[in-house]
Specification:
Blueprint lengths: L2 E5 L2 E7 L5 E6 L2 H17 L12 H10 L5 H19 L9 H12 L4 H20 L26 H10 L5 H10 L3 H5 L6 E2 L4 E4 L2 E3 L7 E3 L8 E4 L2 H13 L19 H15 L9 H12 L4 H8 L4 H8 L7 H12 L5 H9 L1
Antiparallel strand pairs: 1-2, 2-3, 4-5, 5-8, 6-7
Helix pairs in contact: 2-3, 6-7, 6-10, 7-9, 7-11, 12-13
Length: about 375
């Protein structure tokens, strides 16, 4: 039962929180005590009660508890842990979560932008926001200090696909053991992790297709392992052109499958770590005489651009690439589709050209 009592140093409010715990607070004036009690009763009725003591938990402690309860792919969990440890803890770790103000968050974001790319800042802030959204849901704080903060603008860089000659130069410059990876990337559009995770049982040489069921995940600690692909729609079956079938067959003639039936492995048959292949790729790019910014992922973009040039639909390309939705496909590659202006002109000429009467043209000429 809520009550207000006169005490030596003012007026003490006694009340119970939603869990039934006894609480009290003292105010110098009676009207202040009454206003507080009214707000407490109202917040309890609305389900918006915030225990001020809960907000005294440190950001570090709440973030750790939040992370432990999340259901993420292992690689995502590692990324979040890295972002919390490297970018959030130095500034906010020892602070109580209720004391962090929006102006401080905005200043922190600006500081991140001084040494991180805008896209990286957005990912870090996305995880930061998730922590505070959880704190609001748990009634630890009333509102998030992330509300209304502004993020650095990132330039929308349009994909510029590699030329056929560039792709051929890259494939030729790859070491023999990894040349098939280059052909597979350009001829099937696999993500690098998917290509490194291809196993023999996923290849159907008779039907000339590849079923993507997994990717190779390499983490900072522990051995590489096979895991589900990026999203549910990333599981897919891809028709393989003859050039890819030939490259895979040739590779398997020379190199035996490794652990778990992996098609592409190191010399000792062990999985290829992403950072190790990154070193191989950078050396390959240099030998091929291409810009140092050329990524293995650019082979996937080349594959998509080839399908677009040959008239495949958005839905087909979405399915081949394993995109979550056609929106992702259009956002990434929409600028590569042929311009529709000429098709519009031809369509209207075919429909209207034969129906407009010659007298209309004559009347126009008289004017």
């Amino acid at each position: 039962m809520s009550s207000i009592a006169k005490v030596s140093n003012g007026y003490r409010v006694r009340y119970r929180d939603p869990a039934g715990g006894s609480r009290s607070k003292t105010f110098p004036k009676q009207n202040h005590a009454q206003a507080f009690l009214t707000s407490v009763d109202s917040s309890k009725l609305q389900g918006a009660y915030i225990d001020v003591r809960a907000g005294k938990i440190t950001f570090a402690a709440f973030a750790a508890a939040w992370a432990a309860g999340q259901v993420y792919r292992e690689s995502t969990a590692v990324l979040i842990e890295s972002n919390v440890r490297n970018h959030m803890m130095p500034t906010f770790g020892p602070r109580t979560i209720a004391s962090i103000r929006p102006s401080e968050v905005q200043a922190w974001i600006r500081g991140l932008g001084e040494h991180l790319a805008p896209s990286t800042v957005r990912v870090v802030v996305q995880h930061f926001r998730s922590i505070f959204r959880a704190a609001v849901r748990d009634r630890v704080i009333a509102s998030s200090p992330c509300d209304g903060v502004r993020l650095p603008q990132s330039e929308q860089r349009q994909i510029e696909p590699l030329e056929v000659s560039d792709v051929l130069a890259l494939i030729d410059a790859l070491p023999d053991r990894y040349r098939g990876l280059g052909v597979l990337g350009a001829g099937a559009g696999l993500r690098p992790g998917e290509a490194l995770g291809v196993t023999l049982d996923e290849i159907d040489f008779l039907r000339r297709s590849l079923t993507v069921r997994q990717q190779l995940v390499t983490l900072p600690t522990g051995p590489p392992r096979l895991a589900p692909p990026k999203t549910p729609t990333s599981s897919r079956t891809i028709p393989l052109p003859d050039v890819v079938i030939a490259a895979l067959a040739g590779h398997l003639e020379r190199f035996d499958p490794g652990a778990h039936g992996l098609v592409f492995t190191l010399d000792d048959g062990s999985p290829i770590r992403r950072n190790y292949f990154g070193d191989i790729w950078r050396a390959t790019v240099k030998r091929a005489g291409l810009p140092a910014t050329t990524r293995a992922h650019d082979l996937r973009h080349f594959y998509a651009s080839a399908l677009i040039r040959h008239g495949e639909s958005v839905k087909t390309i979405q399915a081949r690439l394993g995109h979550k939705s056609a929106v992702v496909t259009l956002d990434t590659y929409g600028h590569l589709w042929p311009d529709s202006e000429d098709r519009t002109r031809r369509a209207l000429d075919e429909v209207l050209g034969a129906t407009v009467s010659p007298s209309c043209h004559a009347a126009e000429g008289d004017e």
